[in-house]
Amino acid sequence: MTAKIIDGKEIAQQIRGELATEIQHLKTRGIVPGLGVILVGEDPASRSYVTAKEKACHEIGIYSNDNRLPATTTQAELLALIAAMNANPKINGILVQLPLPKHLNESEVLLAIDPDKDVDGFHPLNVGRMVVGEKAFLPCTPHGVLQMMARSGVKIEGAHAVIVGRSNIVGKPLANLLMAKGKMANATVTVCHTKTKDIGHYTRQADIVIAAAGRPNTVTADMIKDGAVVIDVGVNRVEDASKKAGFRLVGDVDFDACKQKASLITPVPGGVGPMTITMLLYNTVESAKRANGL
Ligand code: GUN
Questions:
Q1: Ligand 1 center to residue 84 CA distance, Å?
Q2: Can you list the pairs that 253-257 forms with residues at least 24 positions away whose Cβ atoms lie under 8 Å?
Q3: Structurally, how many domains does the chain consist of?
Q4: Does the annotation count 120 as an active-site position?
Q5: Is the CB of 141 under 6 A from ligand 1?
Q6: SS3 call for 249
Q7: What is the CATH number of the domain that holds 44?
């Protein structure tokens, strides 16, 4: 079997188009959704993610308040900026790009963000709301994965989904969302991680394999069953002298080999990445609507 490619760029464009129309309507009522973006330090991958997020905001009409802070920024300075954004009515969403430099306390920073502006869905209050099935901002990458599966006709209900990776940003929330009662959910979920004895033993039983381990070639063709849906959340830079930048991006999945066995597969780049940014835009628009009682 040769897999059909799930085109994340195309699905993201579709949703961004829907959002742009909604933003135009909001503007006629004097509402301009705003996102406060904070990047601390010079990490090249974080810089490129943040630039892509800011560009996406501009393209669909979201006001973005961009803050690039030096790596020497103190905890107090960062907390003061967050407090100012919490109080600023023009800002409906606050995004602090992770990871932060080591000297900063990430949990304290996430707790400082007003949960009603937490468009990343990382505040413990929103994490708790999501786990018990209450209305919450859903974390962008897991939400993007669900949207791309739903819009590609993947049947999630009753499927066995195996997630490889247990991060707070992807693996854990995705497991919760997939096992929840409701639309784009009702799956049976297994989570594998670095201490799992034989990851292939689990992934071979999966109807849906989601790789979010942060390591190239974590999922190889012998680890998936014929016709499985394979979603690759990984974004890894591997050295490549033939590229101008000196590297190329690969996911966690051996794409070329798995493509021969899967029914549907996401590429890297052009798969989950554009969806993550799109769900951030979606949450920012949602937040602006809620702030205005809509
Ligand atoms: N770092 C990697 N992914 C994310 C994300 O979705 N949001 C933030 N804030 N930082 C990240």
A1: 21
A2: 253/211, 253/217, 253/218, 253/219, 254/217, 254/219, 254/220, 254/221, 257/220, 257/221
A3: 2
A4: yes
A5: yes
A6: strand
A7: 3.40.50.10860
Is 111 a member of any domain? yes
Among protein residues, the one whose CA lies closest to atom 1 of ligand 1: 98
Q: How far is CA 204 from the centre of its chain?
A: 25
Residues 117 and 45 in one domain: yes
Contact 123, 283 (CB under 8 A): no
Closest residue by CA, ligand 1 atom 4: 98
Q: Which of 7, 13, 24, 53 is catalytic?
A: 53
Task: Based on the fold, state whether residues 233 and 170 are members of the same structural domain.
Answer: yes
187 located within any domain: yes
Residue 5 falls inside a structural domain: no
97 labelled catalytic: yes
Q: Is 283 in the pocket of ligand 1 (CB under 6 A)?
A: no
**Is the CB–ligand 1 distance for residue 272 below 6 Å?**
no
Residue found by looking up tokens 């954004």 in the block: 85
pTM score: 0.96
Q: Is residue 249 lining ligand 1, measured as CB closer than 6 Å?
A: no
| Ligand 1 pocket test, candidate residues 53, 169, 233, most atoms within 8 A of CB | 169
How do the residues of the chain divide into helix, strand and coil, expressed in percent and rounded to 5?
40, 15, 40
Kindly state whether residue 132 falls inside one of the protein's structural domains: no
SS3 59: helix
* Domain, as residue range, for 96: 30-121
CA of 40 to the centre of ligand 1 (A): 13
Question: For every one of its 294 residues, what pLDDT tens digit does the chain have, with 9 covering 90 and above?
Answer: 899 999 999 999 999 999 999 999 999 999 999 999 999 999 999 999 999 999 999 999 999 999 999 999 999 999 999 999 999 999 999 999 999 999 999 999 999 999 999 999 999 999 999 999 999 999 999 999 999 999 999 999 999 999 999 999 999 999 999 999 998 999 999 999 999 999 999 999 999 999 999 999 999 999 999 999 999 999 999 999 999 999 999 999 999 999 999 999 999 999 999 999 999 999 999 999 999 999
